Amino acid sequence: MKIIKKAKERTAEDNRRLRGTVAEIIDNVCENGDAALKEYSARFDGYVREELRVSRREIEEAYSRISEQELQDLKEARKNIEAFARAQRESMSEVKDFSPAPGIFLGHRIIPVSSCCCYVPGGSYPLYSTALMLITPARVAGVRRIVACSPAVHGTGSIHYKTLVAMDLAGADEIYAVGGAQAIAAFAYGTEQIRPVDMIVGPGNKFVAEAKRQCYGQIGIDFIAGPSEVLVIADGQADPEVLAADLLAQCEHDPNAKGFLLATEESLANRVIEAVGRELESLKTAGIARQSWEDYGEVVVVDSLKEAVDVANEYAPEHLEVNLENPDQIIGKLENYGSLFVGGNTAEVFGDYASGTNHTLPTVRASRYTGGVWVGTFLKVCTDQRMTAEASGKIAPLVSRMARGEGLEGHAVAAEKRLR
């Protein structure tokens, strides 16, 4: 393995200060409710809304501002996301009356959570695609109360009109103009205007991520997300201009985002670096993308595809692209990724918006133990069992012996009461 471009080491953030700041915000919201939310809106958003919930009139006004083409684009993207979510839901089946022994009947039901909040970031860009990605699978799962929230555009008190339309199209029951760690606290614990939910999903900045971490247990979450990342495995047939574009598409998200290329040929690696430089000359988001690429962009030449697979599995990226002449030779060996994009025709950005898979994915190596948001995120698999008198009497001695072996006398007695 030869490193052509090395990323700088990520310095540890002042996590203690971050934890303390977020804890203060959560405590303030719990103690002061809506007053705290309005305080933070004035400080961070430059505007205070008296009514945090977005009205139907505001939603209709958003529809009046969106172009017909933009509306059709949202509808087409939603259609693909919904179709795949339904296919995923149909792949999950309930178990009824499975019998491991005569007279014992086991099963499980698949039950949607009762309520969820879909957090849609609204910082540097209006991420209306995230509204589709979160609300649509929740709706397919059958969640009865789907709440959406997003920060207001600074100084306006209003959520960006495209985001608002996307939230409504996807099927949100309630929409609130509130964001940041304070929004997570509000939907976890409730305020005068906000009823709490059972689960919060969606990406956000480090304050949102830390608030989700601290509120976990009070509510369920999807996962803790960090800066966006893409890892690309490519050989000599790949187009350097395409690879450069895919890397910079991630870099423009955030100065801390990461683009990582594993090339099988050094000449390809150098051509991609040159192509990145050319694209940065004209890219409108070059201010962010250049900093991300210079600080965290990485280019490595691997000695073999096996080495590429090993590096990818160890890195466990959010997005993994395989741009090889014969990608199938390694697909089955790749185990840790949020979402996989196979072949040069399959741009990662297609999954970001409209192909149908979800773009809310695990980062910072979390794909070692979880996948991204999907319809199953909003579903609980809950077991049940029933027994005949004969089966109860037969299993009771076994359970009694095991319980006494653990020193749990009450457990043993509860089993022995079933002996006939």
UniProtKB/TrEMBL annotation:
Residues 49-87 form a coiled coil. Zn(2+) binds at residues 250, 253, 352, 411. One of its GO terms (cellular component) is cytosol. One of its GO terms (biological process) is L-histidine biosynthetic process. Its cofactor is Zn(2+). It comes from the Bacteria. Transmembrane segments: none annotated. InterPro entries: Ald_DH/histidinol_DH, Histidinol_DH_CS, Histidinol_DH_monofunct, Hstdl_DH. Pfam families: Histidinol_dh. Substrate binds at residues 228, 250, 253, 319, 352, 406, 411. GO terms for molecular function: histidinol dehydrogenase activity; NAD binding; zinc ion binding. NAD(+) binds at residues 119, 182, 205. Pathway: Amino-acid biosynthesis; L-histidine biosynthesis; L-histidine from 5-phospho-alpha-D-ribose 1-diphosphate: step 9/9. Gene3D superfamilies: 1.20.5.1300, Nitrogenase molybdenum iron protein domain. Its EC number is 1.1.1.23. It is an enzyme of class 1 (oxidoreductase). This is Histidinol dehydrogenase. The gene is hisD.
